[in-house]
Amino acid sequence: MMSLSEPELKNLSLDSKPAEPTNHISSCSSIDRTRFVGNLNITSDDQEPLLKEDGHRFVLFPIKYHEIWASYKRAEASFWTAEEIDLSKDMHDWDNKLNADEKHFIKHVLAFFAASDGIVNENLIERFSGEVQVAEARCFYGFQIMMENIHSEVYSLLIDTYVREPTERAHLFDAIDTIPCIRKKADWALTWISDKKSTFGERLIAFAAVEGIFFSGSFASIFWLKKRGLMPGLTFSNELISRDEGLHTDFACLLFTHLERRPHPDTVQAIIAQAVEIEKEFLSDALPCKLIGMNADLMCQYIEFVADRLLVALGNEKFYNATNPFDFMEMISLSGKTNFFEKRVSDYAKAGVMTRSRGEDGAEAKEAGGGGMFSLDEDF
């Protein structure tokens, strides 16, 4: 594989350039907030059943929202910890099998992931957990916050393990401030957290895009390393984390369907399209996937494919009509062809939890587990 020269590599990192100002695709101010579908008698978020203050929100039973509860039990059954990731074999591959381009790519992807999980948690803690009044959904968000902490710990451990030089390590840990291509993605997400004019539904779409689109290309790039038999600790953690993020994206789509007044499909498409353009730029220009031998055009097609999946899960029509160009991703099902509870990429599920959940509430669990859930690999 052809390796880029050292000067080219430095240019790709964009580390020496100041952060670029956000443009029209990275601002939520360009979204039309005047159009909605559903119950148009609802004029503000605090009138939404999911968001309306409820005196029963402190008591869990009786379960009212069975699909939401089933999503929580599904997440609970997938619990794992950072200590279960074995990195002992990765350093041999890092030192002997990866070239400078591949190391550069992996380090910057890990830097993005390490920062992004903290941003997702910032939104959950600062906004969503306080806004949602339904106890079943609060259970899910509480568990998601814990899992995002575990993801962040794993990414930090990976950087700490692979990057031996303290100054470079600190540079990667501070990626939001030091690496503009990562800052651009972070700025888009942070803008949605701080925006006081956006509705809950709009922000739900935006963070479904963060976890479903901003992560998708990077997940695929690490699965590409798995296909090549490299970095078993990194790729196994990627399986676990991508599965979790699929569940989180599913949950965002599920809550969206429970909103009685939802953003217009054009608004949904506009928000998703913003995320797609930022992600394409990230993996084709700013941190090109060609560094690890992946085709940039196919990566852009894959991002469009994932975006179509997300659009359909949010009730829209496909916009890009893209097919999955990566055959190796057909083996990675987050919620589709292979039942998540019957065949896992790992054996860490707490089977007793799900057996009990399905036994007590079988119809609802079945309904919640099928149909229009978001997936990174499944074709239509």
Automatic annotation (TrEMBL):
CDD domains: RNRR2. It holds the Pfam family Ribonuc_red_sm. Belongs to the ribonucleoside diphosphate reductase small chain family. Residues 1-25, 359-380 are annotated as: Disordered. It comes from Puccinia graminis f. sp. tritici (strain CRL 75-36-700-3 / race SCCL). It comes from the Eukaryota. This is Ribonucleoside-diphosphate reductase small chain. PROSITE patterns: RIBORED_SMALL. GO terms for molecular function: CDP reductase activity; ferrous iron binding; protein heterodimerization activity; zinc ion binding. InterPro entries: Ferritin-like_SF, RNR-like, RNR_small, RNR_small_AS, RNR_small_fam. GO terms for cellular component: nucleus; ribonucleoside-diphosphate reductase complex. PANTHER family: RIBONUCLEOSIDE-DIPHOSPHATE REDUCTASE SMALL CHAIN, RIBONUCLEOSIDE-DIPHOSPHATE REDUCTASE SUBUNIT M2. One of its GO terms (biological process) is CDP metabolic process. The lineage of its organism: Eukaryota, Fungi, Dikarya, Basidiomycota, Pucciniomycotina.
